[in-house]
Amino acid sequence: MKRTVLFMTMASLTGALVAASPKDEVQGAAKKLADAGSYSWKTTVAGGGGGGGGGQFRPGPTEGKIGKDGIALVSMTRGDNTTEAVIKGDKRAMKTQDGWRSLDELPAGGGGGGRGGRGGVAGLRNLKAPAAEAEDLVGKVGLWVAIEVVAKDLKKDGDAYSGDLTEDGAKSLLTFGGRGGGGNAPEISGAKGAVKFWVKDGVLSKYEFKVQGKVSFNGNDRDIDRTTTVEIKDVGTTKVEVPEDAKKKIS
Fold it and tell me: At what angle do helices 130-139 and 22-35 cross, to 10 degrees?
């Protein structure tokens, strides 16, 4: 009887240790961030290369606030243009010169009433709140197998977790998950990357991903070496005032 109890106790402890993998801990930290209900964030992009073209669409900082109702108010800078937007789940809307417009009301190739242009619309289509993006990044770490993702390279060092991206994960991030004009996907070669997460008091506080590779489209080649950093603050205390006209577009 004692041996049976001891075996069950050891099995339980072993299961707990296996469950508490770095991947699980980061996913748990992202979930706690989402469960907090509100937070603010700032995304910055450093390095050279594509993502929509030259100066006009060059990725600048993106700042956002998400409230307990799940609606995020976002300000995206692309070159000299700043675009205001709201997102809730898969729904998005942008502020144009003609008022707030949902993505379905914007031209497929861009537009945005002259305020964000193609870069603003493309960025809005692929934009995710940090809690959701972080969980997606965890899925891009390691090696794809038949049923699940094995995060074999995700390692913990203090409050930080780091690992290499899969080739497919790096490819999707090289083009911000987008496509070239006319619906054609660009050709990507030499794609690689790495990601790092920071956790404070069990909650995701920062993450960073670096991607490298060559993107070719319409005969033009561009070498990319880009680092994206997302810093999170005011978890659980952020207040968001979303215009009523914007809410209607994502309801």
Answer: 160
pLDDT digits (tens, 9 = 90+) for 84-137: 999 998 899 999 988 999 988 887 654 444 444 445 566 677 788 888 888 777
Cα–Cα distance for residue pair 191/99, rounded to 1 Å: 39
Tokens representing 195 are 């990601």
Q: Closest by alpha carbon to 204, among 129, 127, 128, 134?
A: 134
Fold of 23-249: outer membrane lipoprotein receptor (LolB), chain A (2.50.20)
Nearest CA-CA partner of 180 in 143, 209, 148, 219: 219
The tokens for 33 are 């961030």
- 215-243 pLDDT tens trace: 998 888 999 999 999 999 999 999 999 99
E strand map for the chain: 39-48, 59-66, 72-78, 81-88, 91-96, 99-102, 143-144, 149-150, 155-157, 160-164, 187-200, 203-217, 220-233
**Residues 6 or more apart whose Cβ sits within 8 Å of residue 8:** none
Of 107, 183, 129, nearest to 96 (Cα)? Answer: 107
Q: How many residues would you count in the chain?
A: 251
Strand partners, 90: none
Share of the chain above pLDDT 90, in %: 33
Is the model's pTM score more than 0.90?
no
Distance CA 9, CA 228 (A): 44
Q: In DSSP terms, which residues pair with 78 in a beta bridge?
A: 59, 81
